[in-house]
């Protein structure tokens, strides 16, 4: 990959608009990636995802390795063909799952051995096989194996994980087959330890990879602490590479991450909340199970262009959730994903117009309406 | 209502093509109605249902009475507005639910008192309130309260249920508010007793209602017996009114019902099987959980025009079902509903072309391919 993987288009304070030029098309940043862990954005057909304004999705190497197996996807012509999504796909490596399913995993310098959370079968993740798997998936953006630790881990544990993450990134770079329009990122770890974060960032930046992610946040720490780490870490990343904040977050977290100079984000919230009756709207969050919506014949959000808001009212959505009709989850997931993409479009516009600070404040105030 | 509710277009043997002229549009018969018990065809957005070729759907008064309540739907402007489906809707009364949830119900000449299967609350269905409820729902076609009995019920029970069904039909007719393009049907009961079926049909036909349904079949009896009852009953129904076979069935049941002169059908199979990995195709039924599809990169049915067959292969569907991804149910339900509508279109064409017998045989032979 060359520097042209990312081009900066506009800046407003620390916030930036840019473009990612990939083998699967050029997309605008800052961008939000809905989560398609197993090769589907839960409940959404690919036409719906396309029409939502989604430019790139996130899938998970670890999960796809277990089901359906990398070989099946390779034989089908890669993950784009397997799931019929022809725009960019970023695949996470499985480092996060190693942490979140820690009781099933053993980690050492060679990688991770673990038992499947599905059937107990033994598997290995190594810096090399994770890169190879993502090559077979034909992932647009490959994430290396990293080691995430608890936010309150002792300093020695944090140091060890940072060292390992840096060594693994180097090994990953050697294993990665360079192709135009495909990228390999590195992941900055270091828990809440700013010194370790800085050390990790410096080491990884020297590798001159195609982009830089910030991992190990949104794992239990409070919001102020997370923003503190973000403020300290983002300036250590090269300005000519995309910056990806992993697993974040709620709409206002996204607003503040963009204000700090983040270019890419993913989160399960719009889809998971879509299944649990929580709607994101410009006036705040709504729980559609709430009785107050039983005879509320307004759309979820009158300003929203999504099919759910155009076609249906709150009363119907409330009824579908109360009756456990699966259409409820599909309709609300669709709305939530469109909401997130509208939020990103609004932030991109604000950066181009040079009023991202005012826009961020306006969004914050708007979203307090319901609460 | 006038006779113009139904016009006969073509006949081939007993099979017939016609048109239903309703307040919500004119549709072609024979037609298949996907089931939307609670106001949603499970897993399908209204655009998908429209694009599937579906002309009319079936909802259920009993279920909607319990959730969300008739009043909520009335306030929203009727069921068409509540669920955003502007084509015809037929609502079943709840007579079938009284039978299938019999342990919760007490039946006498005034109607049925029952406990909600949801919260145990007490409710009443009477010939009158069921008609009123369907008026509030703004149902295109209203079904009266009837009494369904076990297929092997003693003759006295069958007689009693036929008498009651006839009396209730008369009371229903008095309660029904006539409006252009809206229809009230009657339901022929009588279990497997041809004499009782004939008695019931004769009594109901005298009422000169807008259409005639055959109920109390597909409740456990074998296929030959069902066809025997059908063969005996259909000729007793007026040829200038639509004939609706309730709750039937598998694709080949539909083929034989159409050959006997049935105009309308409904069944949970295409949607329920869509959720349980069973696909209906022109070469037979497939269970997508079956391991043989794990690396099968063909579409479900290469001749099918549905989005699932155009966009995805069996391997992906297999993976989604194995992984319990909700998209699996949506994609397969969509295919199954399109398959049923394609089947109906093929049968309508065959009737117009005068080759329904050959077509029925051809379909039967085709569908044996997989089994």
Can you describe this structure?
Two copies of one chain form a homodimer. In chain A, a hairpin with a 6-residue loop joins strand 8 and strand 9. The first copy, chain A, has two domains: 3-266, TIM Barrel (Alpha-Beta Barrel); 274-366, no CATH class. Chain A has helices at 46-51, 61-66, 70-75, 79-83, 95-100, 127-137, 155-175, 194-206, 223-233, 251-259, 269-275, 307-311, 314-322, 327-353, 356-366, and strands at residues 6-12, 15-22, 25-29, 31-34, 57-60, 89-92, 105-108, 111-115, 122-125, 141-142, 183-188, 211-214, 243-245, 264-267, 278-281, 284-287. In chain A, the strands form four sheets. The first copy, chain A, has an eight-stranded parallel β-sheet with strand order 4-14-13-12-11-10-6-5. A three-stranded antiparallel β-sheet of chain A has the order 1-2-3. A three-stranded antiparallel β-sheet of chain A has the order 7-8-9. By secondary structure, chain A is α/β, with parallel strands linked by helices. The mean pLDDT of chain A is 95. In chain A, helix 7 packs parallel to helix 8 (194-206) and helix 10 runs antiparallel to helix 15 (356-366). Chain A has 15 helices and 16 strands. In chain A, 41% of the residues lie in helices and 19% in strands. The A-B interface holds A 38-47, 67-68, 72, 75-76, 82-84, 275, 294-295, 297, 307, 311-313, 315-316, 318-320, 322-323, 325-327, 329-331 and B 38-47, 67-68, 72, 75-76, 82-84, 275, 294-295, 297, 307, 311-313, 315-316, 318-320, 322-323, 325-327, 329-331.
